[in-house]
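Deliverable D5.2: sample structural annotation.
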Amino acid sequence: MTRQRNINGISVAPGLTMGPVHVVRAAPDVIPSWSIPEDQVLTEVRRVHDAVEGVCEELERRRQVVAEQANESDANILAVHAMIVRDPSAITEIEKRIREDRLNAEACVQALIERLESSLSSLDGESIRGYAADASDPWRAVLEELMQTEKRDFVAGDERVILAASQLTPQVATMLDRDRVLAVICETGGRFSHGAVLARSFGFPCVVGLPNLLGRLEQGMRVIVRGDQGTVQLLPTEDDIDAFLVERSRLQARAEALSTQAELPAETPNGHVLEVMANIESIHDFGTFNVEHTDGVGLLRTEFLYMERAQFPSEEEQYRLYRRVFKNMGGRPVTLRTLDIGGDKQLPYFNMPKEANPALGWRGIRVTLRWKDLLRVQLRAALRASAHGDLRLMFPMITTLDEILEIKETIKDLRVQLLEQGYEIAEDVSIGIMIEVPAAVFSLKQMIEEVDFVSVGTNDLVQYLLAADRDNPFVGDLYDPHQPAVIEALSQVAKVAKAAGKSCSVCGEMAGDHMNALLLMGMGYDALSVAPNFISEVKYAVRRTTTQAAEEIFREVALERSGAGVRQALQEAAARLMEVTTAELIQERPPLGSSSGDQKRQEKEGGAL
């Protein structure tokens, strides 16, 4: 059978890379399945036997404990489970499927579990259906052992890989240190899902919407990923590789040319300066970009500090981390967003309630105002760190004016408390809110009197305006930041902020596209915060565009009646303003002989561009 070599999907994050594929588990309830070459059949069979032995050893240990603490009769249940997973006929069935279907061990054990449950649970009688569960549960332990062992060995390795999964989730995007991830490719996932946000932030190419991807892959197969085009090329030939190298060289030249200008301010030809800041997740991000290219941190997503730990970080831990962020930024402002958990951002040690619609439920400031100690600890740490830098506090998911007043009262009380305890804190700490909930757009005239700045989180604002969950692929077509309703809401926020003389920015993914950046500047936004790898392109676009031209882009877009029309207007504006060849870019380089850390990282063999 001829294997289809080129798969078209949806572009999530730009870039070009080539490397070996590693199929991973997208979520706890998803069993990974991939094809294996003939020379790995015996390896997969051995993995099954090793997992069975590991489970049997654990069952025997537990049997002895139960026998000592309860009675031998109860302990024998565990002995029966060991007999079930050692059943020669079951093991033979798994081995046969591995050899004939050339599938990984996990998929073949899962097939056995499904057969057992299907064949037994359909029979009459409660006791027989109960036996179906008893017969399959021990094999679930084998399945879990296989997956845990595979993940542990994989994470402990050092190979740079292209991660492949059934669905793009935050768990997939953060599975490995970002230096080991060349790209992420998935069968499903939204372009603006939380996993997609992380992929763009981390700077590796990402493509989703690749039909039957896992069924076409073998573990370790070499592929080429073109994030800009949304394509994956399987088993590239020598000619394909030669073409890839030429394309990569061209992109490297452009990236280098842009990088040499990235320290220049985002100042328009008529003298208007737009602040361009960085979105970061953790202290580790500082090894991935040059802080000299930024005007500060416009969004520090502090929840990842919590997600990386086995328990809540203490006040002292948070204080030390925030102080390190200030030190790394060398006096530039740092906008710290308070803990934003809920939805698919869960803490393993904090039990959140099960909700029918978590996107509209208990998340962001709604959690921390209920569990006030979480907020107080974080604010105390942040206020203490403010003595070491320019701190701006920002609060997510603000819906009502009452929430803002409660937050301000809490900060006032903590300030008095900290000063009485002898801590040094900054005299003025700016307080801002994220505009993500439509109610905040319509109530902004009242809210803005109580804050120093506002920042629009377009990722959530779009989904709430359009009632389209950004993590739900079934409504992915509806989730469109270019819909006229979104453009009108963004314009309204900028208008209210300018009238009040308050700073307004956008920190959502929309700002990372250079044409969107010009549109937002034309609306009146004075700052943008983007993933670090988009900074140089955005700043370059601003330097080539007058404020009058940006305002004209906005006027043209505001006349459009559809998302397609808005995109077309932006594309036409790009053709007028931004079509610049790499050769022209190189000629425009400033006569500064500074080397770029970004370029050095890109030159690593197999690296993504």
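Annotation notes: The radius of gyration is 27 Å. The longest strand covers residues 16-23.
The annotation will be released with the project's public dataset once the embargo ends.
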